[in-house]
Each structure stands twice: as structure tokens, then as C-alpha cells.
């Protein structure tokens, strides 16, 4: 078969894959970008194969060329030399508009068109592709559900009427609207507050499980790279690859001083980003709804030796923690008793984020929920500690080319686990103190009622 026939076949296969939304491989072959007047190239002979259906994260300091490298995939930046193959076909031989309409693109702060409603923003590319109205309507409704926005509430709003997190969800929906095989994401969560950023990172992983696209993600945050990436590519200046591989490999065996300095301290804790709530055996903590009554839940507490039960609403969503003594009083409004649930985690939440929720709530446990918020069980802090103790990280002192270290954590890789045990003991002590004072508080309240 001639090279012309091979190229023609690759382009036909790519068109079919793009039309079907099937993930495709990206192959960057010695791509270089030299800007006029610059002494050194912005990107120098960058070569990497990105497997179909994976999230590959480019991570490196500002100005290292990671965004320029990503933009050469959809020809927003044209390579000075080298080739970009998409699904085996040379991107330089494709029509620019066709190429870009088949590649989703998400940028920081969403980049929404301010004069269009949310629905109109999402439907931009399908309308350019001249889809039928019925297909566009069905696709936009599907995308509202996919990114977790209520269609009735948000469809007719304008971008200025949305929060930063909501705008970014719309940006993801717009990028996925034409069901592209490839999604490029340029620091999409960088301008958001930490809580919203963590939530959207988990949402992206949930979405990827459903749609399976080839995603190239750019960030300067190594924690974000570890959490999201199937593969992480650590870049130096001019987009030279310092190390690439699965996140656990980079954390366990950093290639050199540069990679170690970029990872920073606490590599063992960072590896908690690689374990997800769904990987654990969730604790079936006693839970109840108001109509079920108190006898059954008190019996469960007695049987299992727990002091607290979890109140659920009629959608099975966690609402409040109630102590055994509060349940014994059989309150008429249990939704006004006990302690409000401060946070929940999803199946795709990492143990690193689950640990943050536990420590911020002060309970040592956090409820896990499904995609609709329904209760699944709880994650305990001791499960996180067990996972951490099962992590192996090569100590810096054992690595070749090691630099002097300053902390015990860097020397042994074990301090993180001890700190978690100390945190667990502190939580246990606080819990015991609350339980000791609960009877006295209840007696004082009863005395006040009798006096009244």
C-alpha cells in the first residue's frame, strides 16, 4: 500500500472517530516552536505519544512552554517543525476549522461569550456544525445533567449571573457539546477557590468515566496533576521532558533533583491522591430517616457499639449526626438536633480530599454519597492511615543524586503517618470530652425546663 493510500485511510478513520466521539491517540513528533526574534525556542523537539482515552497532564513552572505545546495540537499555535498526528493523521493536512470544531477546548475562567445565555454558549459548536434542532436540544439537556447544573434553573442565565465554579462547568459542557474525541484543558480550575477547585476536579474524573475522551490538561500544580492524570509529564524550560509516567511512579521514584524539588515534601501524603473512596470498604454506619422511628436505630447502635447515628432526608442524603442520648429522647424534630454534616465525599473523591473533610469537620469520619447525593457509608480516618502506611516512597536519602534534606519526613518518608495518628488521637480525645459533658449538659437543660 502506498503512503498516499495510508494517509488517506488514516484521515478517513479519524473523520469516523471524530464523528462518533471515539477517543483517539495523539502523537507529537519532535515538535518545535521558534518565535521570531527569540534566541531560544519556546518548545524544543517535544516528542510524546498520548494514548486514546487517557488524561495526560503537562505540569511545570510558568513559562516552561506547556500551554504552547498543548496549543500545537489544535493549531492555535503552528509548529515551526515536527509533526502532530491525531488518530494517525497529520493535523497539518486537516482544515483548521474542522480540526478545532472536533477538539474541545477549556480555558481558565471559562471564556464564555457574555452576550449569550448558558444554553446558547453550550450549543455554539453544534450549531456551527449544522446539527438538527432536535439533536441540539437533546445534547444540551444531556450536558446540563452531565456537569451537574439544573437545566430549568441555569439555561436562560447569562455568564455574569453565574459563580466562577458554575461558569467553569458551562465551559466544560460547551467543550463537550459536539462530542469531540479530544479535550484540551488549559489550567481550567486555576482561578477558583480551593473548595470549588477540588469539587470540579472530582467532577471531571466522574465525567471522564462516562465519556472517555483523550484529555490533555495543563497545570502548574503538582497535586492537581497527581489527582487527575493517568500519566503526568513534568516539563522543564522549552518543554523538555524531565520525567513522564504514572503519578505513583513519579512520586515513588522521581528522576532527578528537579523533579524532586517540583514534587516538594510529603510525597507519601500526595500519593493519597491515587486512592479513591470507591477503593475502600465503606463502613455501614447506622443511618435512618424520620419516618423509620427510633427503636430500630437505637437497636443498631447497641448491636454495633456506636455512639452516633446519621439522619438522612427523604432522598437518602446525609443531614445530621445524632448522639445516642439524643435518640433516646425521641425528639419530635430530629432535623433540629445533633450536629450538621459538614461535608460529604463521592466515590471518585481521593483519600487526600476525604482526609481534609474529616479533619475540618472534627469528626474523624465523613459520609460517602453516590452521584445523586444518596448515602453509601462512611470513610474513617483510620482507613486513610492504613492506606498511607501501605504506600511506599523511596526515601530521599536512598535516591541517587540526592540533595541535602532538612526534615525527618524527607529522610524517612514516615512522618506523615505519625502526624495522622496524632490527629486521630486528638479527634478521639475531643469526642470523648464531648461525650463526658453531654449528660451534664442534658441534666442542666432539664433543670432549666423544670425551673421554667
Commentary on this structure:
The protein has 452 residues and is an alpha/beta fold. It folds into two domains: 3-102 and 180-264, P-loop containing nucleotide triphosphate hydrolases (Rossmann fold), CATH 3.40.50.300; 279-388 and 420-445, CBS-domain, CATH 3.10.580. It contains 19 helices and 17 strands. The strands form four sheets. Strands 6-7-8-3-9-10 form a six-stranded mixed beta sheet. A four-stranded antiparallel beta sheet has the order 2-1-4-5. A four-stranded mixed beta sheet has the order 11-12-13-14. Helix 17 (381-389) packs antiparallel against helix 19. The radius of gyration is 26 Å and the shape is globular.
Q: What's the CATH C level of the largest domain?
A: Alpha Beta
Number of domains: 2
Strand content is 15-25%
**Which stretches are low in confidence, meaning pLDDT under 50 for 5 or more residues running?**
392-399, 401-416
| Mean model confidence by pLDDT | 81
Can you tell me the CATH architecture of the largest domain? 3-Layer(aba) Sandwich
Distance between the termini: 97 Å
Query: Biggest sheet, open or closed, and with what strands and sense?
Result: 6 strands, mixed
How large is the count of helical segments? Answer: 19
**Rg of Cα set:** 26 Å
Q: Which secondary structure elements does this structure contain, and how are they paired or packed?
A:
Blueprint: H1 3-20, E1 26-33, E2 43-50, E3 55-59, H2 66-71, E4 81-86, E5 89-90, H3 96-101, E6 103-107, H4 118-122, H5 124-128, H6 133-146, H7 151-154, H8 164-176, E7 182-186, H9 194-211, E8 214-219, H10 222-228, E9 231-235, E10 241-245, H11 247-252, H12 257-263, H13 267-270, E11 287-288, H14 295-304, E12 308-312, E13 318-323, H15 324-328, E14 339-340, E15 345-346, H16 351-361, E16 365-369, E17 375-380, H17 381-389, H18 408-412, H19 415-451
Parallel strand pairs: 3-8, 3-9, 6-7, 7-8, 11-12, 15-16
Antiparallel strand pairs: 1-2, 1-4, 4-5, 9-10, 12-13, 13-14, 16-17
Helix pairs in contact: 6-8, 17-19
Amino acid at each position: 500500500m502506498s503512503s498516499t493510500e495510508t494517509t488517506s485511510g488514516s484521515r478517513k478513520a479519524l473523520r469516523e472517530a471524530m464523528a462518533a466521539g471515539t477517543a483517539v491517540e495523539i502523537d507529537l513528533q519532535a515538535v518545535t516552536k521558534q518565535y521570531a526574534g527569540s534566541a531560544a525556542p519556546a518548545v524544543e523537539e517535544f516528542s510524546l505519544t498520548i494514548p486514546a482515552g487517557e488524561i495526560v497532564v503537562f505540569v511545570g513552572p510558568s513559562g516552561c512552554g506547556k500551554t504552547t505545546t498543548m496549543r500545537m495540537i489544535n493549531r492555535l499555535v503552528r509548529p515551526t517543525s515536527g509533526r502532530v498526528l491525531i488518530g494517525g493523521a497529520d493535523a497539518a493536512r486537516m482544515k483548521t476549522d474542522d480540526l478545532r470544531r472536533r477538539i474541545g477546548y477549556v480555558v481558565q475562567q471559562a471564556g464564555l461569550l457574555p452576550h449569550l445565555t448558558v444554553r446558547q454558549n453550550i450549543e455554539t459548536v453544534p450549531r456551527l456544525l449544522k446539527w438538527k434542532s432536535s439533536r441540539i436540544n437533546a445534547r444540551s439537556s444531556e450536558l446540563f445533567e452531565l456537569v451537574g447544573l439544573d437545566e430549568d434553573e441555569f439555561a436562560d442565565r447569562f455568564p455574569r449571573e453565574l459563580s466562577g465554579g458554575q461558569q467553569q462547568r458551562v465551559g466544560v459542557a460547551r467543550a463537550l457539546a459536539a462530542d469531540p474525541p479530544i479535550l484540551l484543558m488549559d489550567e481550567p480550575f486555576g482561578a477558583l477557590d480551593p473548595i470549588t477547585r477540588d469539587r470540579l476536579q472530582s467532577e471531571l474524573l466522574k465525567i471522564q468515566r462516562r465519556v472517555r475522551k483523550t484529555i490533555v490538561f495543563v497545570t502548574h500544580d503538582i497535586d492537581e496533576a497527581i489527582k487527575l492524570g493517568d500519566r503526568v509529564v513534568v516539563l522543564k524550560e522549552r518543554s523538555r521532558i524531565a520525567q513522564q509516567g504514572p503519578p505513583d511512579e513519579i512520586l515513588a521514584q522521581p528522576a532527578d533533583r528537579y523533579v524532586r524539588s517540583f514534587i516538594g515534601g510529603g510525597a507519601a501524603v500526595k500519593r493519597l491522591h491515587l486512592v479513591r473512596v470507591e477503593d475502600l470498604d465503606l463502613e455501614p454506619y447506622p443511618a435512618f430517616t424520620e419516618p423509620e422511628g427510633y427503636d430500630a436505630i437505637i437497636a443498631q447502635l447497641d448491636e454495633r457499639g456506636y455512639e452516633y447515628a446519621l439522619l438522612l432526608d427523604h432522598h437518602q442524603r446525609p443531614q445530621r449526626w445524632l448522639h445516642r442520648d439524643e435518640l433516646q429522647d425521641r425528639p419530635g424534630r430530629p432535623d433540629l438536633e445533633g450536629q450538621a454534616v459538614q461535608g460529604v465525599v463521592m466515590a471518585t473523591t481521593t483519600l487526600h480530599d476525604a482526609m481534609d473533610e474529616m479533619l475540618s469537620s472534627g469528626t474523624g469520619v465523613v459520609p460517602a454519597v453516590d452521584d445523586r447525593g444518596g448515602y453509601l457509608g462512611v470513610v474513617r480516618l483510620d482507613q486513610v492511615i492504613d492506606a498511607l502506611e501501605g504506600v511506599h516512597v523511596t526515601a530521599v536519602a536512598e535516591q541517587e543524586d540526592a540533595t541535602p534534606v532538612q526534615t525527618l519526613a524527607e529522610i524517612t518518608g514516615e512522618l506523615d503517618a505519625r502526624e495522622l495518628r496524632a490527629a486521630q488521637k486528638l479527634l478521639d480525645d475531643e469526642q470523648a470530652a464531648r461525650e463526658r459533658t453531654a449528660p451534664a449538659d442534658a441534666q442542666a437543660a432539664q433543670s432549666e425546663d423544670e425551673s421554667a
